[in-house]
Write a structure and sequence with these properties.
This protein has ten helices and 13 strands. It has helices spanning 10-20, 29-42, 77-80, 137-154, 161-167, 188-201, 218-225, 227-244, 268-283, 312-329, and strands at 46-52, 56-63, 69-71, 87-89, 109-117, 120-129, 208-215, 250-255, 258-264, 287-289, 292-294, 298-304, 335-338. α2 (29-42) runs antiparallel to α4 (137-154), α7 packs across α8 and α8 (227-244) packs across α9 (268-283).
Length: 342
């Protein structure tokens, strides 16, 4: 794909991207709501919100296809951030801008609107289809309206400082090393680093809470419906966790079917309440896949920090794990909490 010409204001644009502090961060429900709405409103299989850095197009929110990043030079959004207004590709296979892109057979149709922050075009809200489409002026205006909603969210610093600092601890091309590619939440190493950082950053006497969340009978789901169904269950559950928790709370995949959530400033009572919201959110609806509706529940163990100590993170994990074990032993689909040792 031929590269688009560089923006005459690229240095200023990249400064705004850095100030935005979303490159390298995981999916967030506030942006997922917008991309889900875009997909429904335009009846398209794909929608995403990209933050366009110097080398990467970071897929902050994705609906309908896999991936968390792409090289900027290969991305349709690379063209979109260079111009005001909507960028439309009716048939990528016959469009000289993108016809030899690796995505041309998947994103045959594309419509994207640049997103502004600090006066610069920092990203794109876009929709796509594997079929050719025409896009009229009313549809263009509607997509632009959705983009304005996304721009409002860009003004809100929702992630905790520990999460932002972790995302910016790596070079741009190494950012995905901190994200679980399947679920678009933090991976095991990242969530443990965030837990440790929150204990250090917390004000004197402030508590940090930890939820350990395990999907019940996940092996049966894989054995009954297949591993592709199991992957979809993990993706949906990760989305439900994000929606049930506060924006500043960090969610990570601890391993297999187990997740961890770190709640800055939360005590054990608040952690137990948040755990119950998560439990209800997970079991509220079955996960549709392949013509089946797959019931899903989870067991949760929660703990909160006590007095700061050298092994605080380790002891919190042990307490949450013991609480999770009690929840599973007591019949699953329940919450148990363990208080810190006085």
């Amino acid at each position: 794909m031929p590269p688009a010409p560089p923006s005459p204001h690229e240095i200023r644009r990249l400064a705004a991207v850095q100030k935005l502090r979303l490159l390298g961060t995981p999916a967030e429900e506030r942006f997922d709501k917008i991309t889900r709405l875009a997909r429904r409103m335009f009846n398209v299989p794909m929608a995403c919100l990209d933050i366009v850095g110097e080398k990467l197009a970071w897929l902050k929110s994705v609906q309908g296809f896999d991936g968390i990043e792409g090289l900027r030079k290969d991305s349709y959004c690379h063209h979109t951030v260079l111009d005001e207004g909507v960028c439309v590709v009716s048939d990528a296979r016959n469009d000289p801008r993108v016809h030899d892109s690796a995505f041309a057979d998947l994103w045959v149709f594309y419509a994207g609107v640049p997103l502004h922050f600090d006066g610069e075009r920092v990203g794109v809200l876009c929709i796509g289809d594997s079929q050719t489409r025409d896009f009229d002026s009313d549809q263009l205006d509607t997509l632009a309206d959705l983009a304005s909603l996304a721009e409002r969210e860009l003004q809100v610093a929702a992630l905790s400082e520990a999460q932002i600092a972790l995302a910016h601890s790596h070079e741009e091309l190494e950012m995905k090393a901190r994200i679980d590619v399947l679920t678009h939440v933090w991976n095991r190493g990242a969530i443990l680093d965030i837990l440790a950082a929150e204990r250090i950053r917390g004000a004197p006497g402030a508590s940090t809470a930890l939820l350990m969340i395990d999907l019940d009978h996940f092996k049966i789901i894989n054995d009954t419906y297949g591993h592709a169904a199991g992957d979809e269950v993990l993706r949906v559950v990760a989305s439900r966790l994000r929606a049930a928790l506060r924006p500043l709370d960090a969610v990570g995949r601890y391993g297999g079917e187990e997740f961890i959530a770190v709640l800055p400033g939360a005590a054990l009572e608040g952690a137990a309440q948040a755990s119950e919201r998560v439990r209800q959110a997970v079991e509220k609806k079955p996960v549709p896949f392949g013509g089946h509706n797959i019931p899903v529940t989870c067991s949760i163990g929660c703990a909160a920090s006590g007095n700061a100590s050298a092994d605080e993170v380790t002891t919190m994990l042990l307490r949450a794990d013991r609480a999770l074990y009690r929840a599973k032993l007591s019949g699953r689909n329940r919450v148990e909490a363990e208080s810190p040792t006085p």
